[in-house]
Amino acid sequence: MPSMPSLEQLQRGLEAAGQAHVLRFWPELGAEERAAFLRELGGLDLRGLREHCEGAARAAAAAAGEGSPGAGLDRSPDRDMEPIPPELVGGGEGSGDERSRWEEEGLLQISQGRVGVLLLAGGQGTRLGVSYPKGMYDVGLPSGKSLYQIQAERLRRVQQLAEERTGSRCRVPWYIMTSDFTLAATESFFQQNRYFGLEPANVVMFEQRMLPAVSLQGKLLLQGKGKVAMAPDGNGGLYQALADHQVLEDMKEKGVEFLQVYCVDNILVKMADPVFLGFCVSRGADCGAKVVRKRHPGEPVGVVCRVRGVPRVLEYSELRPETARLRGPEGQLLYGAGNICIHFFTRGFLQELAQKFLGRLDQHVALKKVPFLDDDGNLVTPGEPNGIKMEKFVFDVFPFSSNFVLFEAVREEEFSPLKNADGAAADTPTTARDSLLALHRRWLFAAGAALLDGPGDGPGDGEPPGTGEPPGNPPGTGEPPAAPSHSASSGGHAPAPGGHAPAPVEISPLVSYFGEGLEQLVGGRTLATPLILDEKKAEELRAT
């Protein structure tokens, strides 16, 4: 381990980078504070600090229209864009026999231990009004399960499906990229919950890098007298983190050749999706993206496309309105492949990326409101963006792929993100919960079950359940969630005929991964609701 630089060495490095102001409160720090500050500053790349700070200021000025023309920003990338060719696209609603073949291939790869999943979990639930990691959040399901628990149980079930199909016992390693903000809480949460039934050795957590936040004038911001304001380097920091923590070596040792990467906030995500994996493997892809069709031209999601012949994601802000409105011969949006941050990579592709291309990944500017200390040492909470955070995106690697493919998923089955607190227009705990419970009702109807809603509820009609606030109990307490309210004012779906929303129906991932096996369990039955179809209830149904 390299030795910690001395104060004098740090002073020289900060002065050379034009950041000597960082130490202006040094005389006021106690011994422990000084030691902690030295450790933090020793972890900075002092040689690259000047370029980081000056480059951030240049990029922010250019993005705001204040930089000189030709400052490196492509102002109209959509002028050179085209859709991904149809021959590289699969999925959709009507793939039938192909989907079955892809599923078989995916389950075979899982059974052979060649598949891993990787979760991007560096973000806190700040926009949800909580200070803990978003994966610990409970959206108010009848079971009270967190996002982490739902995902862990889906992983357990897909392992079981692969074992049942092939007779081979298998495990799917779960890699979880955290940040300085989320690592300790995530580790503790998994330990408290005994890894949700998974083998601890197959749950590998690692931390992405943190980068210093920079003022609009190119100066480091202090969040304390002995603390630089830091931020994660974006979900595209994944690739550097894989190298930093020897995660690719762990994958090789475990036999993982194919990886599904996803974000924590999608309550409908299919873990180690055998259909998506099988499609990508059967096409010989080294890189792939799962998408959903955009609802309308102005929907604020990125678009997976080609720009100058290579695959890219263009953010909705990069598309001119006239480009976003273009339609194909059948009336569909020409650029309707909405990015949902579910990707496929081969380990070989990631290994090559780590060896050759890390220094070529794009940097993106994010202007943020960053609390900071003023010259007098007072903490200031700004009302307007005052800081620059440089970050990378996970899809920045698409242009380096030699065989990129696209897989279209059905939104109602696979994508319902959790981004905002209740009261927002979309992507709230209520909409996420309703999406999952509505999917489970559809599964039961498709399996031949009838639902008899309990006293006080309207007739079951397959519509999503009513609305409700997320429970107030902190995650991991073991307390049951508060009963959901059916108030229409909280932004949920309209009640069923009769004035009441359908009673909630929740199916445990340990019972069914994507609706499979339910026909034998509930076909021809009338089930009373509200209903939690967990393993215990499933055993009761099998016994009657």
State the assembly state of the protein chains.
Answer: single chain
Task: Count the beta strands.
Answer: 24
SS class: alpha/beta
**What summary fits the major beta sheet?**
8 strands, mixed
Unreliable residue stretches: 66-74, 456-499
Strand content: 15-25%
Q: What is the mean pLDDT? A: 88
Number of helices: 15
Alpha-carbon Rg, integer: 25 Å
In short:
The chain is an alpha/beta fold.
Describe the structure.
By secondary structure, the chain is α/β, with parallel strands linked by helices. It is built from 15 helices and 24 strands. It has helices at residues 7-16, 31-42, 46-63, 96-111, 147-166, 183-192, 238-244, 247-254, 274-282, 321-324, 347-356, 411-414, 429-446, 518-522, 535-543, and strands spanning 81-82, 89-91, 115-120, 174-178, 203-207, 210-212, 214-215, 222-224, 227-228, 230-232, 258-263, 287-293, 303-307, 310-314, 337-346, 364-368, 372-373, 379-380, 387-391, 404-408, 450-453, 505-507, 526-529, 531-533. Strands 2-20-12-15-11-3-4-5 form an 8-stranded mixed beta sheet, sandwiched between helices. Strands 1-13-14 form a 3-stranded antiparallel beta sheet, with no helix packed on it. A 3-stranded antiparallel beta sheet has the order 7-19-16, with helices on one face. A hairpin with a 5-residue loop joins strand 17 (372-373) and strand 18. Helix 1 (7-16) runs parallel beside helix 3 (46-63). The chain is globular. The N and C termini lie far apart (63 Å).
